[in-house]
Predict the 3D structure of the following.
Amino acid sequence: MEFQSPRHLARRTLKNSSKLKSEYPHSLQLYSVPPSETIGLQELEDWAVERLKVLRAVERVNLSKNTKFSDDWKNALKNDLQKQNIDSWYKLSSSIKDEKMDEIICKTRQKDHVSHFLLRLAYCRTEESRRWFISQETDLFRFRFSMENSEDIRIFMKENKMNFQPIPDEEKQKILTKLIHAMSFNASKIDTVEYYKVPFTEALDLVRHRKVYLQAGYAYVPNDELVSIITAMFRSHLSLAMALTIRSLPELEDDHRIRRLLNDFDKRYTGQDFNALQNKFSGAAITPEMLDGLSKQSYPLCMRHLHETLRSTHHLKHGGRIQYGLFIKGIGLSLENSLKFWREEFSKNMDIDKFEKQYAYTIRHNYGKEGKRVNYSPHSCIKIINASVGPGENHGCPFKHFDAALLRQKMTTNRVPQPAIQEIVDLVTRHHYQIACQRYFEATHNTEVDSGIQHPNQYFIESQKILNGEVKEKPKGAHKVQTIRATLPAKVEKPDPTDENHEILSESFETSKQKVSTFCISNL
Amino acid sequence: MSEQSEEAMLTYYKRLFPYGPYFRWLNYGNMKEHYFHNREFSFTLPDDIYIRYQSFKDEAELEEELKKMKPQKIDLGAVYNHRPKNHRSITNFVPMEKELVFDIDMTDYDDVRNCCQGADICDKCWKFMVVAVKVLDVALREDFGYQHLLWVFSGRRGVHCWVCDDAARALDQSARSAVAEYLQVIKGGEQQNKKVSFNHEHLHPAISRAAGIVGHHFESMMVEDQDILGNEEAVKKFLLMIPDEQLKSKLENAMLKYHNSVSRWRVFEELTANTGKTKRQILHLKEEIMLQLTYPRLDINVSKQLNHLLKSPFCVHPKTGKICVPIDPSNVEEFSPETVPTLSQLINELLELNSESLSKDGKSLKEYERTALNPSIQLFKKFLNNLESSWRHKRIIASDAKMEF
């Protein structure tokens, strides 16, 4: 890692390489101990931005590809990182043993360590951002883990006191048929596979997907799935740590530079939350009468389907009420209007009394007027795509949750040109749901979307802009509504070296020792 | 809206509600301090007034409060780190433990039952619940090693399961969701016709076990009772589940030559038995279809969340007046929602009671033990005895451990 700021050179506080080497003996880290060295604020910022880029790449690859952690998935992630010139993030160990290589690698490991802790601070504040961070970090860990050789893994497990003992052959033979039936790989391999018996709570992902044989609370985990257990440990370790981090946050935020840095990072993930966005486009408030028209013009397919189902059956199940209810809140329907809208439909099937008692609560809840009083944000595409949809339910993403034939039918009804339908169905079979949605937008609006579709409410806004003939130029520096990801590497302005404020950040993540001098990053 | 009268509810809470056993259950042998006291109760009062975060010190306080409030419905929530009553004054108020619960409701079967819809049930569709109890009971016991499963009739058209083992109560949210998803087989909404698909050569042991249980009931409950292939329209609907176009048209031609559900099902069995082996996509077709139609349909959000509320056992269902009584899973076929005692029936029984009655061993009986509620109470006590023996065992271990120091 180079130091660009002269100040860094002047006050070189980084540890020398041999010390670094002993500190970071392994390419994989569980991030148990926070970093304690002094690091320049600019560097801190750069590293954190880089890590965020990496996590975003992980997220992107998860959305576009079929099987997670397959070879294709890994290659796609590698390519993505290479394109952005941040491929050092997965090259954390090397077969070349020379000093220079060692130094580079240790430096990268340090960067990995420090940036992880900074992002923890930035992402611990809301349930949703915590979940996002933990999930990307866990995937990144697993990705790196999968590239280690078995010797390195053995050392790593030993260092972190993960002692798993394979079951004796005798025990294996007794349940052999069950083991064969539970496994997803070729049965002829069974003789070479070693099994580990662990409490099922340590192998939750394998349990969830029924990938292991379970007996009396124990999971029998084949050795190639051990990674799943170790990943699970990583995850639970991290989520516990995040819960602790949030407690120390108030103290940390006393420092305004940290506060600004963190606030900013947080937003870089969530982007616009589309919460109760006023409809600026028509000038007038949205009323229930307008929804039929809007649903045809500007709704994404998921919402149009929910709207039409509601109109025709006068009912939606819970998942549908939440997904659609939050969406119409997001496009600017007030609570009163929302109640009026749902009441009007539901009362065609039930008496108003029942509606008021059983359903009005959820609607007020969506608007933060009941229960925990959280003003919930409309669901994003990721959330909708990953939703669990059961019999009788209509929510979810049509591109994922519809049978192809029904999807075609629906699009034909919505007058999507045949070639576009074919293209969309092809995208869907390759699991590119969001790109399919983008094509659907383009086909129904005769225009191109440069930023992709990440949120149903973003879809709506984009559509309204086009229909209202609004110029698509965005005011400089203003929030770009249609980009969630693209807001990422807003180039950080380099600090003016003559400015007195550019001190080096003496950063210890243990908050009690927090002594941070003045802030030196401007214009984030 | 039909609710139970206040007077009837008062009688229920004064003379029929089994406070003793109920407290024995929720107190869990007092193995953990304040376990009962930190449990959330929620009450639904007449006119749908809903009050959350009630909590009670002990059995006496619970009894007093129930008699005073006369709730139409009682829901049980989690055990928190503080008294739920004081939740507003506590900054860090979080759920710690709860039974692992499952909720199965007949309305989720509307697309596969032809006998009734919505809130209605009959003996034909109750079989869905029988299958659900059998499949889940064995899975929870064999796969997860749980022993203390309390199955309860939900009062109208469904069943609840409360898994009460120490280990189950301590599960965190992610473990709960993993268990729920392991047990959830049917996936897909209104716009997906095939909701169960297995792509591997073998079925997972849990799936083949479930398919075995389901297969045992399938013909009588689906092919005959629900008449799933009874007319041309039904056959068309059935064929939507066939992923292979060639096979689909072959089946359609062959099936429509016959005129009743049973013989059409035979045709399906024969044709798929031969062709199934060659194509992976239809390798497990028969099992997939049987499971899609009859595998338990869980409301998994209820199971996933630690703080989710669920109607308590021994509630009176506000609409039907039936008592939410325990069900014996080893004898679930004997259970019929039709014969569950209702509140008004129990009150009539009370009117006829003699002033005093003694059991065989000379102890005086509680009033509820002299009504139709008694078998349910006995079943509940049996469950409690098993549960308590596990604490006794733990206590011995704990005291042994102390001796060593």
User: Anything to note?
Assistant: Chain B touches chain A at residues 1, 48, 107-112, 142-146, 167, 171, 174-175, 177-179, 181-182, 184, 186-195, 200-208, 297, 300-301 (CB under 8 Å).
